[in-house]
Structure formats: structure tokens, C-alpha cells
Amino acid sequence: MKNTLLIYNSLTRKKEVFQSRCSGEVSMYVCGLTTQDHLHLGHAKAFVTFDVIRRTLEYFGNKVTYLTNFTDIDDKIIAKAKNLGEHPQFLAERYIESYFEDVKALNIKPASFYPRASAHLPEIIEMVEVLMNKGFAYEVGGDVYFRVREFPAYGALSGQSLDELKSGARIEPNETKEDALDFALWKSAKPSEPYWNSPWGPGRPGWHIECSAMNLKYLGMGFDIHGGGHDLLFPHHENEIAQSEAYSGQTPYARYFMHAGLFNLRESKMSKSVGNVISLKKVMEIYDPMVVRITLLKSHYSSPMDFYPELLDEGAEALLKLKDFYYHFKMMINQGSNAEHTEDQGIIKTLDSFVTRFQEHLADDFNYAGSLGMLFQLLNDLNQIKGGSKLILGKAMEEIVLALEILGLKVEEDKEVRKIIEMILSYRQDIRKNGKYDEADQIRSSLMDLGLIIQDSPYGTRFYRNTKRNNIR
RNA sequence: GGCGAGGUAGCCAAGUGGCCUAAGGCGGCGGUCUGCAAAAUCGCUAUCCGCCGGUUCAAAUCCGGCCCUCGCCUCCA
Questions:
Q1: How many other C-beta atoms can be found within 10 angstroms of the C-beta atom of residue A339?
Q2: Residue with CA nearest B76 C1'?
Q3: From CA A297, how far away is CA A48, in angstroms rounded?
């Protein structure tokens, strides 16, 4: 693609022209899950965002290496496992499984690798040792801390000086640290806690070091895009930069930092600690997972999103519109003629304009909300045409399918079940021809009770699954 | 206190100097089409982009001031 791709880079707080480390290849890392619970809508927002970013980069002709991690060593996991009388690794494993179920339902493309913190202890320990040798870290009673004052660029990402950070400090006083802002690279194990052996005694890695260690191992310094939720900007990403650049002596750690806006529930961020979480699995019991996806796609990735009661219903209606068009248009093509049609030239023009605008929005900092708007605009335009040649209508369909693919929206489902329903509908069509409307309406109503939408049209009867399960009567 | 984001129709939301007398989604009202239903379609639903000034031939978009909302600074996607 010849589009110049712009990316808002949190490092410079500006949109920049994207240039990857190697032309045609993009390496990206997305801070993944701390495996302590099921996913909620906030996770979905971040993960869907970076999935579309990845798909867009691929669409623009890049080969993308996409990493997302599991932080499966963590204080909360340990605490929760202890509560349940379960081994922390088992607990982590359950949530990893749950994660895979959810991201699959959301049609998030698989990552190239899913590195786990627990599988990278040697790399982590090596990093900490080097940081100590270079004077960037110190040990106190089995704990190792990063010495933030030794790293002059500390605070660059969050736009804060050390003193500013300190004055806002809600940091627990800790006598053992040289500076309140120093953060843990290694934590000594308390009795009965799981541990790994290290030069500083039994313990476990601190929170931030695992991302650095895995990134440096798989992607190397200066990889292209580092993503995550906006809540990770400080301290997590700030600390990652400090420890990675201090360790390697090179800069930058990552060329572009990108942050997805947070999902808020009634004015407070949806996070574990506040407890106002909407479980993704619960939402997906009620709505088609694609409802979640299209809802998240309706606003800019970097904007925060507020939850309100109608939010998902609106997405459900929007998805229905997409599905209805898809099946309607398919029938129209099937019954189209190969002959040229008076509308053909107009359709070509409409398509060209759509493709241009769709791409322009994506190329401008992945404005998928704008692109989705263009797609709906195209649907409205195509609904107005009286017909077209099979060839041109087919081309339009190809563009739509491609657009849906980039946005990761699946509208077609279960081919097997479709055959059975087609048989039923063909019977219904016969009796309709004979004027037996009461029975035909009865069949339609029964199918709708099963969660199907049935639409009679001059092209035949189309059907697809409803997007909201409690619409099922 | 510091840093950041934002205020666009009934709701959500894109647009950030002229293509804007402002996309798109949801909703509402009226018409067309239809065996019915639904979908679709047509018309109407912001003469205006938080407020006040300024710059400019031209501003929702730039500058200054004010008001308000949200997030981060503590574990979090």
C-alpha cells in the first residue's frame, strides 16, 4: 500500500510517520494478562484494539511478529491460590485456558508467541545481575531494586520528573529502599510462597522485569510497537524502558508506544481492584461475541469508553444491520445477470471512493471507528442501487468481505445448521405460494423463537442468527 | 499538587483551517415497498460543534481566558 501510516506515539505525544525497524516487517508486543482472573470488557477493548492494529499492518503489506505475554507469577495470583488451596501455576493455567476461549470468540488472531514469565527465569535473573553490575540495581535483604536516580531519562514516557512523581506519591513508605520510587526487580520469598533460586536467595521476579526480559529475547532492543492499556503507561512501561535501556546500554527499547483507552464503568475505571468489572464471558452469554467487537470498534482506540445500559444493545443492532446486508447482498448476486448493467459505473465509483476513504482512516493512526463508518456508508449506498452485473456486485462483495476481515468482524456462521434451515424454508416457500400464510407465519415464528432472524424478500428468504440471546422469545 | 485525555444532535461517535449549510451507529416521527412481519428506502430529527474574546479572505478545527468531565501519578488491559 502506498499509504503513509501515521501512529500516535506515546513517547513523543505526537502522531508520527511509521517506519519499522526493517522495511516490510513489524515486531510488536502487547502487554498481556496477569493470569489471576477471567477477562473483562476492559481487556477486550485493549486486545481487540491491538488485533485490528495488527490486521491493518498486515493489510498494508507488513509481515507482523506479534507477541503477547502471560504474567503468571504475581502477588495476587499467589494470594488467590493460597485462598483456594490451589497451586498458583494451576490457577494461572485455568485463566490462560479461559483467555484462549475468550480471544477466540472475539476473533482475535493468534499471536506468534505467548511467552510466560515463569518460563523465563534464567533470562530475568541474568538481566538483574547485569543491572546490579552496572550499578543500576542494589540488593537489600534478598530484594533487588532498580535505582531510578541512576537512569536520567526516567519519567520521559509519563512526562514527569522524579520530583513531580514523588510529590504526588501515594507510594507506601519502605525503609529498605534508597528512594521511594525505586521499584522491585526481584522479591524475596516469604515462607510458604513459591520461589525460584537466585544469587540473592529464593524469590520471584518483580512485576515489570518479565516483559523486558521476554521482549529482549524474542524481539530485541528497538522493536517496533509496544502496546497496552493506558493504565500501564506508568509505572509499568516507564519501568520497562528504564530497566531495558539501562541493561542494554542501547536506545530505544521500543520505537513506538501505543496505549488503548480504558473502559470505564460509571466513572471509575474497570479494574480488578475496584471490583466493578463486567465479565466478558457473562456478556457473551447474552450477546454474540461480535457484538462486543463492533461495540469496541465504534469509537477511537485511544479514547476511554464509558459503559451505559444501552451500549451493547446498540452494538447488537449495528451488527444485525451488517449481517442482514451480507445475506441480502449475497442473494442479490446469486440472482444477478452476467450482462452489463446501467448501474455498474456508479457502483465502481462508489467502491473506489469507499476503498480510498476506508484506507485513509486506517492509515491515520488506525482510526477504525472512521473506517467502520465508511463501511456503513457503503452499505447504505449499495442498498440504494437497483441492480448490477454479477461481476460488479461480486467485486463490491469482495471489498466488503475484505473490510470485515480487517476489522475482524465475522458475520457468517454455522454452515451445517444452515442446510437444515434452508430445507425448512424451502418447504415454507412452497406453502406460501399456495397461500397457506398461517402455517408459513407459524414456521417463521418458531424459527425466530430459536434465535433466528427471518426476512422474506423478492430475492428469497434470508436468515441469520440474532445478535442478542435474550431477544429469543 | 503534577501529567494526560476530552466537552460535536435525544444517546453514542468520526471529523481538528476551505470537500463541514458536520460521517457513521442507535433511537424518534411521517411516507413508500410488502400477503403479513421485518428489512430496506425516502423525508424530517445540530444553521451548528462547552462559554467568552482574538487571529484569518475562511475556524468545530489555530491562539488566549473561563467553566465542566474523565483518567494516570498504588495492583490493573
A1: 9
A2: A271
A3: 8
- The band of A167, judged by pLDDT with boundaries at 50, 70 and 90, is confident
Residue A165 contacts strand B, CB under 7 A: yes
Contact A213, A244 (CB under 8 A): no
Q: Is A373 exposed, middle or buried (0-12, 13-18, 19+ CB in 10 A)?
A: middle
Positions 296-315 in A, CB within 7 angstroms of strand B: 298-300, 302-306, 308, 310-311, 313-315
Residue in A433, A343, A352, A428 with CA at minimum distance from that of residue A391: A343
CATH topology of domain A20-307: Rossmann fold (3.40.50)
Residue numbers 222-281 of A with CB closer than 7 A to any atom of strand B: 228-236, 260-264, 267-273
- Is the pLDDT at A328 greater than 50? The verdict is yes
Mean pLDDT value of segment A439-460: 94
- In CATH terms, the fold of domain A314-407 is Four Helix Bundle (Hemerythrin (Met), subunit A) (1.20.120)
**Which amino acids of A are annotated as binding site, given as ranges?**
31, 211, 236, 240, 272
pLDDT per position as a tens digit, A207-235: 999 999 999 999 999 999 999 999 999 99
pLDDT band at A429, cuts 50/70/90?
Answer: very high
> Cβ–Cβ contacts within 10 Å for residue A113, how many?
16
Residues of chain A with CATH 3.40.50.620: 20-307
- Residue A273's pLDDT is 60
pLDDT tens-digit map of A81-128: 999 999 999 999 999 999 999 999 999 999 999 999 999 999 999 999
Q: How far is CA A51 from each of CA A81, A160, A293, A405, A410, rounded to the nearest angstrom?
A: 31, 30, 11, 11, 14
Every domain of chain A with CATH number 1.20.120.640 lies at 314-407
Q: Residue A30, CA: closest nucleotide via C1'?
A: B77
A356 touches strand B (CB under 7 A): no
